[in-house]
Amino acid sequence: MVVWAGREDLRYAFDVVRLREVPAGRVLETPYVDLWPLAGLMAGATVDSVVAVAERITAASVPSPERGDLAGLLVLLAGIRFPPGALLEALRRNLMLDELVRHSGVADIWKAEARAEGRAEGRAEGRDEGRDEGMRKAFLLALQERLGSLDEELRGHREGRRGSARRGADPHRHRHAGAASVAP
Predict the structure, then answer these.
(1) Contact, 35 vs 19, CB < 8 A?
(2) Annotated domain spans of the chain
(3) Contact 72, 104 (CB under 8 A)
(4) Is 43 helix (H, G, I), strand (E, B) or coil?
């Protein structure tokens, strides 16, 4: 109740309905086809019963686009309770149901969301790869600045070892000899 300027303006009474505790038959026994998608959330629901409700929706006397949306909504709501892959696999066994769900407005929303998620993941992966590549280049530049050209250094190191090995001497002999001759 809301009291404004000393008088009661709004009053609402409501009940909480826990769908998971209400038998699905209570909704399916009504002529209100718009309530049938709730059966996927209700007590006693199974993947097979969701498929049976979807088949019942396809046979309902409502326009075809509405049937597709109701079937898609049924799958969407049942996906809260059951693994979506199991539901879609069960629906694919019936080609008419599969086609109906694929062309529903709900499927269009799923596709758009999946595309958006894919783009976001792709951008994130691209940023990560770009950052890694940038760090590699920065590291190589820092090494080259500190040590000189890495290619020349590596080539010189390999050639020095080969020549020393052929002579049977210490690979760092030229350093030792230089150091000994400079000492007093």
Answers:
(1) no
(2) 19-103, 116-171
(3) yes
(4) strand
